[in-house]
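WARN no homologs supplied; continuing
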Amino acid sequence: MKIKSTNIPEVKLGIIAVSRDCFPIKLSTERRENIVKEYKGEIFDCKTTVENDADMLKAVDEVKAAGCNALVVFLGNFGPETPETLIAEKFDGPCMFVAAAEGDGDMINGRGDAYCGMLNCSYNLGMRHLKGYIPKYPVGRADDIAKMIEDFVPVARVILGLKGLKIITFGPRPQDFFACNAPIKGLYELGVEIEENSELDLLVSYREHKDDPRIPEVCEDMRKEMGPGKFYETLLPRMAQFELTLLDWAKNHLGSRKYVAFADKCWPAFPSQFGFEPCYVNSRLCSRGIPVGCEVDIYGALSEYIGICASGDTVTLLDINNSTPKYIYDEDIVKKYGNKYDITDTFMGFHCGNTPSCKMCANRAIKYQLIQHRLLETGDPDFTRGTLEGDIAASPITFYRLQCDSEGELRSYIAQGEVLDVPTRSFGGIGIFGIPEMGRFYRHVLIEKHYPHHGAVAFAHVGKTLFEVFRYLGIKDIQYNRPKSLPYPTENPFE
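OK structure emitted
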């Protein structure tokens, strides 16, 4: 993981081998040991090989006692259908099912038929309505399965995170911002808890933190993060006070949950009543694995948290905001990237100033929110200050979102691309994005499927992990930026 955060689960793996009693048990035992040797990470090696229900209960107790929260169920031979699937029922955590390939013994007494057994395992998981994670091709040698385990870890981290997540909100969505509508039904289906509060609740708590003795320490940390000339000195105590307010609220309101995300109403009343824009503080929390969704975007905050767990790194939430001007495309993009992107493959992702500073260019600084200043102030900027502005640094990215639509159905999209190394010549926390076939994706997914304007951004290509997560969660509609060779169902074939 790139960031260390107590708000992200630590995956503690275990492996249990299963064996059909009419096959040599040593096939499962020895093949399990070979996997443990091959896997480079930490994994608890359960010594009980499961042949029956009693073995299953004993093995599950062993991995639980070892502190495991995610499990590899390994079919070293054909495997016992009932006990192996009951592991997923009795173990409280994500289980990956994989099977041994042949070739490490003769084809008489050294043949395990796990290839066949995997079919029955999958059938029985379905019969019992049990969730099990099964890789693309779940049969392999020790080194193959070690790679499957490596790929399983971020998937398991997301599943564990959602299982323990509470989203805390302050205020309703801003007026006429129906895109931030958030049916709670979808959250409950995912196992996510929600706590809804008013802006007044937050303001009261903020005022209670006035003169908090920790404020000077937080101010100093902000100075070090931003560097000289990149912040407003007089604004730091107010922002530090707010940061402590959110952190204390999270600590005191977790209840039975382990992890937290926020979704706050950040305008129009917030800056005038709190005395600043919350964007920079939001960026700081996100850099520590605690996302804060802008404009009470609950599913935006949820998506951010999923991305943090999937990538092990901080993320951001941006408007899919504006088209790229042709002069920037001609002057900078074509010169640097040639014909890699059409102009419609590019766009600007923007938000007022919530992107963590570690993902921004050196020109980033705490400034004021121009649009809010136009709306709320006359004269020099005062309480509209507090945004973290500048260009987002060049990076591979995954643009994605998990959303509950107006019919109460969960759906998602994933698109991989990059932040281009091109100056935006604009304001806010902003970057120019290049995503292959973005123009078609914009029309036939984002518009056609009625997605809101916010998208979460992970600073890595994690589409593979996200797709597996959404599939595991039972999301039936998972869209992506299709290549030219694969038309969308609504795409006109005559154009």
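The chain has two domains: 13-162, 165-480.
OK
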